Amino acid sequence: MIVVMQHGAGREKIDHVVSEIGKHGFKAHLSEGQERTIIGIVGDGRLTDLQHLENLPGVDAIVKVLKPFKLVGRDFHPADTVVKLDGVEIGADKVVIMAGPCAIESESQLYAAAKAVKEAGAKVLRGGAFKPRSSPYSFQGLGEEGLKLMARVKEEFGLLSVTEALTPATVELVAEYTDIIQIGARNMQNFGLLREVGKIDRPVLLKRGMMNTVEELLLSAEYILAEGNGRVILCERGIRTFEKYTRATLDVSCIPVCKRYSHLPVIADPSHAAGSWSYVAGLSMAAIAAGADGLLVEVHPDPASALSDGKQSLRPEKFQALMKQLKAVAAVMGRSL
Ligand code: PEP
Ligand code: MN
What is the pLDDT of residue 273? Predict the structure, then answer.
């Protein structure tokens, strides 16, 4: 971090800034030019907020040299993180496919979905028991009963499971029944929830908020890592743009950008970006071609009767066909499914 002093700021103001820097445990390195003085803050200032120095008399600007995140960044941890869970590795050579219905609706529905995704080669069964819906009158999920169904069905098919925790108070309950805890787009900056999942021993699938930047996504992941949970999987699920023909715009660039700045695995959710099943295959392939470590895809045995997101859900046979295409794209990337 660098403090740029105003034109002609005198000794007294410079000394004041230097002493403030010292109070926070950092050293100051002065570079006194003809016109202005620049003060370098020596030490890693990312874990201390020094932005207030900008308000001191004589200060023109604070320039950040390093990225604001530390634990999720590559400076601190250059090697890729691989999230390991019962023989499945997310972020390693294999592309991991997570698939299933938007919401758990009934035992027969979840069973049929699990059978289809398992046969097609998915490793993780998705399905929401607590659903974040735009309308309070829409189906909100089966709650704990849904979690119990998920735990039974995933066991029967030898799949892992991922499901969303909506509130800090339900994190422990969700963790009791599921392998991976999903933090949904709407909760990406629910800092209390992030801290709560940071304290538990379960991998976290953190979705990018629909109106958040990549940097904000990484800072949200930083909350989880800062609490001690290093098993975070980032997920690009589409952001809001001016485009109306799709539900959201899959920001494919987010994938290589996250990979550049962070060591965490990155997956994509083509379903919530597309909003229509017919775009899901193309977006899935694009994500893998961009370097995604996995996908989260909505699959429903009978999309027409789905209680949520039926329009964007693939039928089992479409999902099976997609998995064949994905194998080919993964091979081009030097990976397999
Ligand atoms: C979901 O995965 O069903 C979901 C609600 O996703 P998002 O949080 O990305 O909207
Ligand atoms: Mn959904």
Answer: 98
Domains of the chain: 2-63 (3.30.70.1140), 83-332 (3.20.20.70)
The alpha helices in 170-253, defined as continuous H runs, are 171-177, 191-198, 214-226
Kindly report the CA angle at 73 between 169 and 160, in degrees rounded to 5? 50
Output the pLDDT for position 67: 85
The pLDDT value recorded for residue 336 is 97
Q: To which residue do tokens 């003060």 refer?
A: 39
What separation in Å is there between the alpha carbon of 78 and the centre of ligand 2? 34
CA-nearest residue for atom 6, ligand 1, is 184
CB 322 within 8 A of CB 281: yes
Assess contact for 313 and 277: CB atoms under 8 A: yes
| Alpha-carbon gap, residue 233 to 205, rounded angstroms | 5
Measured from the CB, is residue 128 less than 6 Å from ligand 1? yes
Segment-wise mean pLDDT, segments of 10 residues, the chain, 337 residues: 93 96 93 90 78 94 88 94 97 98 98 98 98 94 98 98 98 98 98 98 98 98 97 98 98 98 98 98 98 98 98 98 98 97
Cα dihedral 15, 16, 22, 24 in deg (nearest 10) = -160
What confidence score (pLDDT) does residue 34 get? Answer: 83
CA of 269 to the centre of ligand 1 (A): 9
In 2-107, DSSP assigns E strands to 2-5, 27-32, 37-42, 59-63, 83-85, 88-90, 96-100
Distance CA(67)–CA(314), nearest Å, equals 39
In testing the pocket of ligand 1, which one of 182, 239, 267 has its CB within 8 Å of the most ligand atoms? Answer: 182
Half-sphere exposure of 103 (CA within 13 A, CB side): 21
